[in-house]
Design a protein that fits this description.
By secondary structure, this protein is of the alpha+beta class. About 25% of the residues lie in helices and about 30% in strands.
């Protein structure tokens, strides 16, 4: 079967391009966003999104990075002057100060290496899983076009119950 472009047959060697992820409508992100937004212990959350300036020779492509979450526990520590948190401290990818963490162990040799889930450690596994679901959706690349259109490039997005703030994000 011959491929065509607007009815004109295509021949020759076609080199595959970027392995872009199929985009989803922003409405599919809404339930994940809303469950985190509605959580009474979550004060604010956010992420950064940008196109790198330089990527060691690879194509520089826009992406979303590092969901962070501030809960009432971190807010209380900050108000008491006991601790100060930045985005890295509150990143949900590994261990979070008040959300907890999921422990893993890698077994076997590459390429047959497997990840074994050793269980959750923390105060509320359901809350942790809801936040992780949002993180996976944001960083999974399937909403990048919608997020770029809505918040722009080189942005730090902060979500609070009363609104969303977008600031210019400078990165290396």
């Amino acid at each position: 079967m011959t491929d065509t472009f607007f009815g004109v047959p295509i021949s020759g060697d076609i080199t595959e391009g970027s392995s872009r992820v199929e985009q989803k409508p922003i409405e599919e992100l809404a339930p994940l966003f809303q469950t985190v937004m509605d959580d009474p212990t979550i004060v604010e959350f956010g992420w950064t999104q940008y196109t790198p300036y330089f990527n060691d020779g690879d194509t520089c492509e826009f992406s979303v990075h590092g969901l962070w979450v501030k809960t009432t526990a971190e807010q209380k520590l900050e108000e008491e002057g006991a601790e100060e948190f930045d985005d890295e401290d509150l990143n949900v990818e590994w261990a979070h100060p008040s959300l907890g963490k999921r422990n893993y162990e890698w077994v076997g040799d590459w390429p047959n290496r497997k990840c074994i889930d050793l269980g959750y450690e923390g105060p509320d596994e359901a809350r942790y899983d809801r936040v992780q679901a949002l993180d996976s959706a944001l960083q999974g690349a399937c909403f990048e076009n919608a997020l770029l259109d809505k918040f722009g490039d080189h942005a730090r997005v902060t979500v609070r119950k009363d609104g969303i703030e977008v600031e210019y994000y400078s990165h290396d």
